[in-house]
Design a protein that fits this description.
about 250 residues; mainly beta; five-stranded mixed β-sheet; four-stranded antiparallel β-sheet; rod-shaped
Amino acid sequence: MGIELNADNDGQKIVISEETTVIKYDLNTSGHKLVACVFSIGEKQWIKEVASGTFTINKGELPVGNYTLKCDIYVSTGSGSIADQAGMENYLGSYNWPVEVTNYQEPEYSLTYKINTDGYLELFWNKPLLNESRFDYYRVVGNGLDVKITDRDQLSYVCKSHIGQSETYQVSVCFKDDRFPWLLGFANLDTQYPEITYDTSDPDSLQINIKRYYKSVMNIEYNRKPLVSEYAADFIHIPYADFAGLSIRK
């Protein structure tokens, strides 16, 4: 005898975070006829007479807090006795699950980020309290960026297009059903372009020093023609006779 539940969880307990939560169940009665299956939380009961089905928990009936979901299973003994035929001779199986009723709130500036060892921006978020069967993908959105991540256990994203521009990133989780996506967090990044300084101690050339916060390269042009392409070092000497201008790109 056994039972499987399909419900939002955090790996340790069932999590009720929406106004209406539908829980699916599937009983294994080991070949015995099911008499009744009684789910209960406190005084609230759901009585089922079929081995597979659903029951609905309305969050308004349960204040925020921790509870225990109990399931009592009654099946016929199959002995054929008068008591069995009258439904008075039953096997009993009992199961319990911890339940947390919580309020889902959209987080504010909850994304963390850093410059990783390769010099790229890396965003991080927390895994949502969500049953895996409902998960479809994470969506990472930024200026000109829209990425889908289908691995539920991937909780970070490396953005190689970020070179220090002012930008807002947002991460949401999208579902396989019609549920509206959950915002997992967003982060506002201020402008942090490479810093450029000049050294004029050499009478024949100008030394350009480049301090990069994020991995990027520099193109140096002369009369609108490339002189140096995708320059990634921290400094460069430009002869005064050839110096025209420079521009920064990804």
